């Protein structure tokens, strides 16, 4: 496997004088922080950790806010505003990690959490074969915020509910649409990270998730079909919703749900597959994003999320995809859900290659992991979903570069004799080493002789990751490159969620296995 | 290990929230829910500990109803000012929220059945040293075993405290402990999994969990190819429970009545009373059963009555929310917090008997619905798939993607173990038998190990 834990860290454990340095730096930063109590909380946590025997310690103070609206048919069904605040202290003592968290952000709780974290680390150290080593990182003192125009938490509730109910009204006007749901969710994540190495980083991240779904029902047959809007969640303010075509699209989305119900069932077999970015982003997430997580590749997630076929011996050797495909990871693209200034190890975020010209060339790493593959520095992929969660390696935005030719969906369709075109994400499933996957979609169309001929239903495509990416024979250009994304990327035990985006152009894949997922005969 | 600092006064927080609601919005109805827990865990992988944590948290949620308008708010800060701020925020949102014609007032005082004991003091107080000892026992390898072990030990103690402005009060404490372990052969060709779940840490046997997972890993090494197809399968409890959940969560009466579920009757209405499965399929949500220690109330505080969802193959109940039950003239069921699938008469060995050619499956992975109308679901097998020939397990085989529905799994089941097993899960406490079923669609090969 080529795994080593060579010592890449010089000077871990140098705790003295750190708090002073961070405060001086913070004075120059455009801090959002106004509560002096937090400085004492930070100092007490780091000081208690050191006193108890930690060679490294960090504290994250995190406030998560969410506001959710959910509607059903012609009325509001749920309005909620939630807050969650607390501190998590992470330490290395005797070479082992320890972690403890408390929801009371006061100096006494911070001190106690640090003591418990060290106690845990010491209890676990005898079960360790290789002590944890952190790759070096510059101790940053900085502030980072989501660029936004209209803070969604300051938009009046009526503006949000009026939009959602107007969408529902437009959907329910479509003949055949019997039910609809619409929603808006805003998530705010404010956090202060401070470490025994002198990092002191404040970040304020805002993410939003608008959407709706319409359901067409044929009462006589008992059949129904739903269509969800394709607008992805984003790291943005309310302006993202205001500028969207959510409301204008409602009649079309409703009509497409009805159309799905009336569509013929797909004939299974091998066909050319044209995927719009609204579908392909999720395939990238599952088949490129997850297998290139280093902890998975080395067995650290074997008990839950699984391992990966991209083992370390394949790095810089495996032809992962067709030579015209390149995938990159980044946490810097504006509006990307995983974008931020620094990860939860305090490492500045960056952009790097995962697959270059079809070859597998890069993993996602944290400070702990970089040395495992002899890399000098972390890729900055550490994240914890909230104060009470242990930070570990989470997926950055992983995207497919646009092709060099200025091709769009129309060009891909025109070049296809016999194929299937898919918009939107539907069902998704992939095995625990990321080979065999099966995906659905929202809208499916038959393509014959270079033209879209009719809509279809009951479509899924199934393939194995390397076969699929090698079968890509047409790639759209930058003009139609779009990002999709999810709030709900799950990993770890206890489970944590991560929000992540994936950009891509439309693409065509040759001779992919198309399944018919209908089992309507089984209902009797 | 002691909690971080002073244990929050939950009853005091409940009273503070209800009093604040009454003072700030005298016309409002209020529902308050407090959840307090200590969750601690230890993860291990590659035969060593990786991370470990210990967290105390208490969260207060308040829902305010003003006529037909309602909104909710929650906070994990339980000082008086924060509680009042959360109540005030919910009131502020409720005042401007559009009307909801389906709003139901908070419940009044309820009469709860006796819950089965679900709190175990040793589980609540387990410390880092005790977790490390269990992990060490789970990770012990026999001489000559070249295996990589990864696993997760977690335990919790939690308390739920509910109250409404209409006089409801509910209080329940429980504990839980789970150890799961995956063993993989060093050559990467074999993988085995096992788990123990209980509300008592003493029931979780790290030596046994380790032994079962290691044995499976070694026996599953170097699998041979088996073609996709429809097979007789013997499903171990984790697999049964995972697929069964897709059916249980589609048993909502409203979805069926509105034409959006498997339980729709063509022409209108639902399939209540219809015999869909064989006589050996019975699924219940008991209250007070020691096999399934769950609170005797729903998330909204409604008293839970014992319910039979499927009785000897016949659909006896669908889930009715309070609103839908009122509209349809039915009794509300709420959402069950525990589900028990009754066992049959077989032993684990009996399930293999008479199987000419079949497949033994340990567990599933990444199961996801394909078609809500038929409940067709897709997913994969993992951590131990074996060929059964002439009534005996003969050799390990490759993993599969399957496309199958829980309905067909139950319809085609012809043997269930007498014993039922609690399986790991987050939202609902579940106990199921292992079973044998037929014509199970193992649709394509997965190269994953």
What are its keywords?
heterodimer; A: alpha+beta; nine-stranded mixed β-sheet; seven-stranded mixed β-sheet; 11 helices; globular; disordered N terminus; B: 449 residues; alpha+beta; six-stranded antiparallel β-sheet; 10 helices; 19 strands
Question: How would you describe this protein?
Answer:
- With 524 residues, chain A is α+β, with helices and mostly antiparallel strands.
- In chain A, 22% of the residues lie in helices and 35% in strands.
- Chain A contains 11 helices and 24 strands.
- Chain A has helices at residues 18-28, 37-52, 107-124, 157-172, 239-242, 246-262, 277-289, 294-298, 367-370, 409-414, 465-470; strands at residues 56-72, 75-93, 96-102, 141-145, 177-195, 200-218, 223-228, 269-275, 327-330, 351-356, 359-360, 382-383, 392-393, 397-400, 418-423, 428-430, 436-439, 443-448, 451-456, 459-464, 472-475, 482-491, 496-504, 507-516.
- In chain A, strands 8, 15, 16, 17, 18, 19, 20, 21 and 24 form a 9-stranded mixed sheet that branches. In chain A, strands 1, 2, 3, 4, 5, 6 and 7 form a 7-stranded mixed sheet that branches.
- In chain A, strand 5 and strand 6 form a beta hairpin.
- The radius of gyration of chain A is 25 Å and the shape is globular.
- By secondary structure, chain B is of the alpha+beta class.
- In chain B, 22% of the residues lie in helices and 37% in strands.
- Chain B contains 10 helices and 19 strands.
- In chain B, a hairpin with a 5-residue loop joins strand 5 and strand 6 (191-198).
- Chain B is globular, with a radius of gyration of 24 Å.
- Chain B starts with 9 loop residues before the first helix and ends with a strand.
- Residues 1-5 of chain B have low confidence and may be disordered.
- Classes of the chains: A alpha+beta (524), B alpha+beta (449).
- Strand 2 of chain A pairs parallel with strand 3 (69-75) of chain B.
